[in-house]
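Our collaborator T.R. sent over the components below with a one-line note: 'Predict the complex.' Nothing else. No constraints on interfaces, no templates requested, no preferences about which chain binds where. So this is a plain run: every listed entity goes in together, and whatever single assembly comes back becomes the starting point for the next discussion.
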Amino acid sequence: MIDPAMAEDLTISQSHSTWQLDATLLVFEPFRTMVSHHLQQRLRKLQGRYQRNLIKLGRLPRVQLPLQLQAVTELIHSLNSLWQDIQLVSHWVKNDSANEWLAAFLGKDTTEAAHQLAQKELQPLLSILLHHATIRTMEKTAVVVRQSEHAGNAYLLLAGQACALQVKEKALFRQRPEQHPWYQRLKQNLLPSQWVERRDTRRYDAAQQVTVAQGRDSYLRIPDLTEAHQPGTPEPKLLETGELFGAVAALQHSPHYRTIVVTSEQAILLEIRWQGVRQLARFDRGFRQFLDEQYRRHRLPALLQQQPILLGLNKSQLEHLATVAELDSYGAMDWKSVSDQNSDQRKSRIEQSEPLIIKEGDYANAVIFIRAGYARKSKAYGHSERALDYLRQGDSYGFQEVLGGIQLRSQQVSELSEAHLPRYSCTIRAVGYTDIIRIPARELEKVLAANKASTPPEAPQPAALPPSQQHELLVHEASDLLEFFIDQRFIYGTQTMLINLDRCTGCDDCVRACASVHDQNPRFIRHGHQHGGFMVANACMQCSDPLCLDGCPTGAIYMNNAGTVVINDDICVGCSTCADNCPFDNIQMVKIVDEHGKPVHANDHQGKLVPQLKATKCDMCTGQLNRPACELACPHDALRRVDIHQVEKIRDWLA
Amino acid sequence: MNSYVVRRRLVYLLVLGLLLASTLILLSLSNLSMPSEVYCTGWGLLAVMGLLVSYHWRKKLLFLNFGGVRYWLRLHILFGLYGVALFFIHIDFSWPKGLFNQLIATVFLLEVGSGMVGLYLSRTMPPRMTWLGERLLYEKMPEYYQQLRQQAEDLALQAAAEHHTDTLVKFYNRNLQSFLLGAANFWPHVFNSGQVRSRWALKFEGLQRYLVEDELPVVTELRILVFRKIELDKQYAIQGLLRRWLFLHIPLAYALFIFVLAHVMVIHSFSGV
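Returned assembly:
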């Protein structure tokens, strides 16, 4: 919470100055704690080195470093700019007159050195905030985050008030796309409009009442919260200044539980992108622990409950597993696909770009679950590794191996040699970024032993391979396909458009069909990455973890209940955030025309009239009676929307 | 060919055989006189033709929940083959008399022929294109031709400026300019002839003796451009053919349908059946 005295002095400039931004941040938890923790860690290290040096010199340290920051309240008084922060930290160090160790260690002017030290230590935080955070001002009734929207950002309420509640879907403009009557669809098919991207602009009138269009700073409003509140859901919860929300969801890219609406006349928020949240968690262990704790408490038991291998465990057992589970992160947030297939280079590339989570042949001491991101499952093959499968959110690995070990011990084999130890049969590597949950085998064993009712699956028989390995053998032939999909990151897709080039005659019936149901403008390009006899066309793949949803200011792009990412044209402000975020360039910004074919214009930031843009993408023909028109229209069965996870089906279809 | 495709084709043959057998059995059991039999097969043929034409409309009316177009194409082929058999039963396996009837029969056979050719092309040409490299968009090909031409022209002019000889420019003007202007050698590429490539290889070999050694790298680059142009021509020819056969098949289908309607009216008016 902010100090009331400080709040009066605190002026948040709209100039978005990084220095001022950081000065503001330090007033709030958890950033203040973060800086404090980080400095303490650094100082502990310095002290350790100093003590070792003194011991080497045959002397004992005379002064113990104060490990708790005592000057946080003093800190707050002088926080109006970053320089003041740094000065304050240096002031704290300087005022510690008994700080001989620092003087001895630095061997020069303490103030200057401390100043540099503080600056250096704050630099990573500054850098993260500079790249991933921004201050946003929102008026009363503005929607900050929307329920069941994939979290892309976390928010820190710097000033003002907000409330968290569940609202009706209608209030968020998430009406199910209306089904046109049959005669309108007939007309659409037989007498297509002569205008491309024609819109009924009257539809926008209602949306304009509740949309504040300011480019990427746009937002949606809910004018009447009482009416919008979903009956039968918990009462709205008030959020005060200094509250951080959405961080756990952003870290995991999982949906928000509730909608958060500004209730004060104005609210100032610090918006931190999910990449920033991840980096902050890496920067500060305390922050990481805070987020992990939240995750363990609110989300992990539910995730474990969904695991088929843990079915039958009671609530307390699941909570116990959640407590002992280790949470880890691997990989980089920003990925870049590399298409080099040369085996030697490929090996080094995989080793460099895909951090190792589990190594084939290592002692199987834990079961892992993927909580966010993707992982490659592979086996050693020649001088490299050959992909057998990939894991995505909710998938697990290592259970068979761990179970084998448990059963081996239960059989009380007289002499357990090295060869009897259960070992992982595959290598698991992070693809892009991967967050995992690791449950130690011994804890799992305890829980399974205590819970006789939930008998674990049958042990692998010596004669028959466990199902996972049978699956591995089946997909072995499809490995080349998998390698391609993983390397190019097509594994993100759940409805990837594949074109079998051995069947495609290029008749363009798919393109025409798409255009006929989408304002005479097809939502895909029949062109894309080609691999052997098939092509992955430039069409939205309906990613399971869609990046395009991040940062949409009005929530116009969202994932519906069927897992399809759709754009609500009415509240799309044309900021192109989604198009910029899509790593596959599958979202196009288009200029629209009104009913008479006249271009529609809107005012930009400077009040100039500019063509109104709208984001368009494949929506799997949501609102149409049939399956995607493209797939339906293909006469040669050359085009299919596929889930890459079903690689065997794809292989059979391509054969 | 995988086992699924083989099984599917066997099922089609079986269904076709059953259809034909049941038609023949029905006709023999009904013990109709010759004119009545022709009358029945004629109406049957018209119904089949209606079904065949409906495939085209199915493609247009996609919003109707009548199954994927791929199933309709299979039905289209199946009933097309059945229609051919029915047609020969209808004309009693003899060439019809009368100019109008002969016209209908000719158009019908042309329609069947174009359909067969189309089926053959749509099954054989796509795999050929797959191995030509990246599948290019037909509509964008003029753009690629333009780029190739520009590159070749720049190379020739650059060589002339650097080496103060006009041999390459002359070669470009005489041989390459018209070749690079647009698509060429449509039929040789359709029939997968290697002649074009060999001919150009010979031309380049012949050219080399008139050049200084410094110009040879330019010739190599020009040769690469020409071979890329040949690959492009192949794609253009195949994709063009896959589109053009429909310009014969669909108008013939509608013409045939109109002729058949006229034929039905004439029969009903004058045959006395």
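Summary for T.R.: Chain B has a mean pLDDT of 90.
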